[in-house]
Structure formats: C-alpha cells, structure tokens
C-alpha cells in the first residue's frame, strides 16, 4: 500500500552570521540622508556620468571645476580624463564621503576639495566646468562662470529642464525671457541631452537637461549692469509693447529721469527745474488707455505662458507701483521741463531711432536690444 503523506516537520536552519549582511549594509546606507534643501540629488547612472565627461572634450592637461560633487560618482569619471579636479562642496558630510572614496588611490593627489558656497567662493583658474548643478543656484552659477576674469573654455551643466530650456530659448518662444537674452549675450548655448528623474538618488520632482555653455571670446564690449538694467524694464511686462512698458509706467519714467539727471551732473550739464501747472502728464492717460488697450490685445493672444522669474521687475518699480495705485486716474499734475525732455528722448528712441515702439520684448532678439541700448546711450540715458 502507498505510504500516507506525512506531515512536514519544522526544520530549524542555523542562521549564518553573514545572512543579513546585505540588509545591514542597506540600513547603514539609509542613515546618510540626502539634504534636498541643498539640491542633493546624486547622479547614480554611470553611463550618463561617462557621457557628460565625453561631451566636455577634455584634454589631459585640463583642470576641471565640479560644483556639488556629492559622493563622487561623476568626480571619479572626470579624474580618469583630466589632469586635476577642483570640487566645491557645501555639505561637509558629502566632502568626507568623497575624500574616503579617493583616499589611497592615484587620483587622491589630483583632487582639490573646497568646502563652501561656490557662489561666494573665489575660484582658482580652471579650463572646463562639469557639474550636476544644485537647482537652487542655477542662475547665480551661470552668471558667476560667465563673469570670471578668465572664463572657462566650456561648461557642461545639468539643470532643471525648464531652466535649461529658458537658457537657449529663441525670440517668440514660450520660455524666452530676460535670462535667455542675458545668457545668450555672453555665451553660445546648446542643448546636449535630457536626463530622467529616476537617474538620480533621491529622484527630484522635475526632469533635467544638460546644456553646453561656451563663453564668447572676445567678450561683448557692453557693460553687463547697464545691459541687464535695460532688460529689466523691457521684460518687466514682456507681453506689452515697448511703448507701453516705457512711456506708460510712471515709475519707469521717474527712474529714467533720475538716471539722466545723474548723467548730466557727471558731465557738467545744467538742468532746468521749472515746472508747468496743469500740463497733462500723459503717463496717467497712457496707463488708463494705451496699456489697457495693449492688455486687451494680449488676452486675444494665446500660447505664451509668463514664466519670468518673480524678480523680473525690480523692487524699486514694484514699490512705486504700489505707492501710485491710489493716484492712478489723475491725468494732470505739475510737470517740469526735465520730465518733458526725458519723455521726448524716450519717445524718440523707441519710435524714430529704433522703430521698436510697437514691438514686444518677447519678440525682440539680441540685435534689437543692442540697438535700443545704443540709442538710449546716445541720448544720455544710462541704466547702471
């Protein structure tokens, strides 16, 4: 007769001291928590790290700057190709991890680790910058690199995808902004590749893109402060016509008048202070008619989302607009000869000299803004 199926016996297996080694190692790694407030999202895909290094076209004699090296996944790839790496890290924990990673290896002597905020740090000379950039310092880092006395040969930078798209956006595109014009004025910018969020640990909330910045050599002979000052006004309301954005905003005209008075004082030009009673200001009317009509036209236009930074409009203008809200609607006030003269200068620049009065900032290119700045300067109007 066949044997009846016996009951399974409880078998006790002696656990090995190494049975839970993997679990313990994973738990130990979880103790080191990434500080996402500092933008710590470590690139974990070695194939992408290798691609970033290859896109930089490094020479064996190059010194490379890396911002936010983290645990060193990208750093070790750079050390394979470059002569020297300068790594700037804000988190001392990450700096310790990177130090341990290269300790006792031939690469140890070729790595210089600087602890601190890269934006506030005086950087030594370097040939190339390769960085998985903390998103919080994207804009300051771009302009710090471009403003160095000896800018790098090229920069391979990873950014949040929307920010990267704004860097190389063209006139008329949804993301075209003051950032686009400023960055493209001082560098040639190209998009290299996209990186999915799952290639980082921990995954960020947004997708990423890699761009190449090649600083222009020689640099444009334009003052950055003055160039950016003019662009702040133009892009303060980038969907308005330039006529409405300049002549229709009282705070802008007051700023231009103050700057022109300062220029006259520096050049020994006398300024008449006589005022006229009851002369129509023109600005109040512009605010209530021209600008309103302009805004009505903007509502009909669709497809462009306003993605400018919150600080696109200078604080001075914001304060002036708040202060003037109760005064809007008044079309008559004391108006001096200086205000009339400055207003006429601005009108002449926009309508006669550049023919840009009816254009919107979002549709103007670098050449248009250069012509605008040149015309303003010829009238004694400066923005620095």
For the largest sheet, list the strands in their spatial order. 4-3-2-5-6-9-7
Structural class determined from secondary elements: alpha/beta
Low-pLDDT stretches are 11-19, 21-31, 285-314, 327-333
CA radius of gyration is 29 Å
Secondary structure tally: strands:
11
> SSE string, helix = H, strand = E?
HEHEHEHEEHEHHEEEHHHEHHEHH
Which shape, going by the Cα principal axes? elongated
Separation, N- and C-terminal Cα atoms? 105 Å
Strand content: 5-15%
Quaternary state of the chains: single chain
Q: How many separate helices? A: 14
- Give the % helix: 40-55%
Mean pLDDT: 82
Report on the biggest sheet: 7 strands, mixed
Protein described:
By secondary structure, the protein is α/β, with parallel strands linked by helices. 41% of the residues lie in helices and 14% in strands. A seven-stranded mixed beta sheet has the order 4-3-2-5-6-9-7. It is elongated and about 80 Å long.
What key phrases describe this protein's structure?
11 strands; two-stranded antiparallel ribbon; single chain; alpha/beta; seven-stranded mixed beta sheet
